[in-house]
Amino acid sequence: MRRQRLQAARQRREATRQARAQARYERARSWHERRQHSVLYLGQGVSGGLQHSDNQPERLARWQLPQPANPQQLAQLMGVSVAELRFLAYDRAVARVSHYRSFDLPKKSGGLRRISAPMPRLKRLQYWLLDNILSKVPVHDAAHGFRPGRSICSNAQPHVGKAVVINLDLQDFFPSIAYPRIKGVFRALGYSEQLASIMGLLCTQRPTQAVQLDGQTYHIATGARHLPQGAPSSPALTNILCRRLDRRLHGMAAKLGFAYTRYADDLSFSADAPAQHLVGKLLWRARQIIADEGFTLHPDKLHVMRSARRQQVTGLVVNAKPSIDRSTFKRFRATVFQVEKDGPQGKSWNGNDNVLDALLGYAHFLHMVDPQRGQPWLQRVQALRVAAQAPAQSQPSPEPQQILELESAAKASQAGRGRSAFRRASAQGQAPWAHWWQPAQPPAPVLEPTEAQRQAQRQAQRRQQAQAALPTAAQPQRQGALEPQQPPEEAQHASQRNPRMLLEQTLALLVLLFMLRKPSLLLLGLLIHLAYHLLHRSSWWLFLPLLLASLLVPF
Fold first, then answer.
1. Does residue 210 sit in the same domain as residue 304?
2. What pLDDT score was predicted for residue 554?
3. H-type helices in 430-542, by residue range?
4. Which of 45, 192, 350, 522 has minimal Cβ neighbours within 10 Å of its Cβ?
5. What CA–CA distance (Å, rounded) separates 186 from 201?
6. Domain span at 380
7. At 202, which helix (H) or strand (E)?
8. Residues 196, 273 share a domain
9. Does some domain include residue 262?
10. Tally of structural domains, the chain
């Protein structure tokens, strides 16, 4: 009775263990399946709205924006997995991988400008957001930066020939735009809290500092997430974010008789003579509006320029027509003459030692501002580049028109490569390169056996190994299609013949040993008989009567 109770208790405990293991497996499987199509957590402080997944279709339909219902559909449109989308959007205070490559560029006014260029995997998703969402949203007509068909020339044109020109600059323009404002842009477009959080995280960066520890590099966060200067999606986001700022400043300026334009963080106002006495009122109102919109004016970059002095807007002189600075053009002309005379060795332009490329860039800029004036200089600089790339003692330099044709052909041959091809593939949700590495999917959970199940498995394995170790003759014949099965009667006769055959062999061996009448041979025969039957795992008990007979029978 006691043994039965113990056995029943052990069975109940085993059933409880198996039920708990099954419950753990079901929870792990459910979590694994949810992670395959949803994003539940993206870091501390940014995951609060990930449970709200209701879009506003009427808002999204205004500009025919994509309408993914959940992160899985968004990842499919982008051409990535949910795991990769989660990895690129996750906000980490300490990370071993950085999605940005940061470097500093010198400013014209002095100091350094921090540039954060996204790595290809993140840039791919930012291009998708830019071409499929951000570029479809209309912005204010006063915005001229980073828009197709607009440039610094179109930004300067409304201010040509004015009695007064005012330039303002927004301080720390990109770093001052924090993650909540970028998330709010996508929410205002009609996306759910969940998708807006993911898109906002993809378009923002947390400033970090690289630290070396035990041979590993860790990126430690040093501030809050903000808009990075250098990401392809950042300029379009600033134009969308500044729509209300542009609308308010444009309306205020129009009431006072001023024209208003904005190129990124450069704000420009201008007016004719009747309104130039209202400069103070305009500046006071502009400060109020800018502060109310969450920006700060740079205290050292406020310029009020009258018609009696040189007036500049985004680097162009606008007194009579958009033109470049005269002193800068004289330096450019002198540098071109020196390169034509002595060659490019030892020359530089604006601190750039690659003088030919730097001069070519400025020549294109001059041609954009004033095509008639810049065309001859562009041809001369292009001729210098061709001459520098040609080997010594080569043929005479080609004509400028031939140079333009050669460069046009070279550009046409590269149309399907480089950055444009990367952007097109990213916008279509395709891998930019043929051998684009894909991260491995996380393994599915498995049901863990209990200790009793593992012990039973081990015993079954040992039995299989022991069966496999038997000789072929000793193994039971497997039933299959290749060998016919024995009838039950034949199998029974075969099993009955085995003990009889062993007994006959044993008696024959005993008679033979008695005939020899040698105890040593008798003992050796008995040992051989014992070893043979032990090796073949057959009945060895006949060894005992043989040994007893050898001891009792006299020789």
1. no
2. 54
3. 451-469, 488-516, 519-535
4. 45
5. 11
6. 324-391
7. helix 193-202
8. no
9. yes
10. 4
Structural tokens at position 316: 């162009």
User: Is there a single domain that holds both residue 256 and residue 316?
Assistant: yes
Dist CA 274 CA 284 (whole Å): 19
One-letter amino acid at 521 equals: L
Residue 185 lies in a domain: yes
Within this chain, do residues 251 and 302 fall inside the same structural domain, yes or no? yes
State whether 115 and 76 are in the same domain.
yes
Across 165-200, b (16+ Cβ under 10 Å) vs e yields: bbbbbbeebbbebbbebbbebbbebbbbbbbbbbbb
CA-CA distance, 267 to 375, in Å (whole number)?
Answer: 30
Counts for the chain of helices (H) and strands (E), in that order: 20, 11
What letter does residue 159 receive in the DSSP assignment? G
Q: How far apart are CA 351 and CA 97, in angstroms?
A: 33
pLDDT for position 405: 47
For the residues of 358-390, what is the DSSP string, one character each?
A: HHHHHHHHHHHH-HHHHHHHHHHHHHHHHHHHS
Which of 361, 391, 421 corresponds to the end of one domain?
A: 391
Same-domain status, 365 and 254: no
- Give the burial class of 46: count Cβ atoms within 10 A of its Cβ; 0-12 exposed, 13-18 middle, 19 or more buried: buried
Structure tokens at 469: 């170790």
Choose one of 322, 338, 364: the last residue of a domain: 322
pLDDT of residue 180: 95
Let me know: does 398 contact 386? Beta carbons within 8 Å. Answer: yes
CATH number for the domain that contains residue 249: 3.30.70.270
pLDDT under 50 in the chain at which residues?
A: 392-395, 405, 408-409, 411-413, 415-416, 479-497, 555
Separation between Cα atoms, residue 312 and residue 533, nearest integer Å: 110
Q: Which amino acid type is present at position 338?
A: Q
Query: Tokens standing for 103?
Result: 């470097």
pLDDT value of residue 409: 45
Q: Which pLDDT score is estimated for 417?
A: 55
Q: Does residue 217 contact residue 210 with C-beta atoms inside 8 Å?
A: yes
Tokens 């290809």, located at residue:
120
pLDDT at 473: 53
Is 467 among the domain residues?
A: no
Q: What are the pLDDT digits (tens) for 460-511?
A: 998 888 888 877 655 555 544 444 444 444 444 444 445 556 666 666 666 6
Q: Are 41 and 50 in contact (CB under 8 A)?
A: yes
Q: What is the pLDDT of residue 94?
A: 93
* Tokens read off for 359: 């001069």
Helix axes of 543-552 and 519-535: crossing angle, nearest 10 degrees? 170
In a domain, 449, yes or no: no
